[in-house]
Specification:
The chain has 6 helices and no strands. With 110 residues, it is an all-alpha fold. The chain has one domain. Helix 1 crosses helix 6. It is globular.
Amino acid sequence: PPEKWADTIAKDQDMKTTQLRKVFTSIKQIELRVKGEDDEKDFNDSSLFMLVPHLAYAKARGFIKADFYELIKTIIGNGQNGKIKKVKDFRRFSEFMTAIVAYHKFHHSR
């Protein structure tokens, strides 16, 4: 189940909360833009694909782990080879990231 994956990722990741929140905020902004769109509509929001270079920078600085970067890069891809093809796919990704943020807060709160 996606919740289990999100919990495992959040628990195992030693990443900066600020970096996770930046990515999450970007995803939520995109979510607002596709609000009301049909689930079966093709998804093509370039700002999502721009998260990959942002995450690459965060990985290079040691703010996020390489395996988290690779996971998100695999999901997002570059527009052609990612897993997000339709609006419904993006919505599932957004839910997944929401769960990761929630579990990260749970496991790493002071």
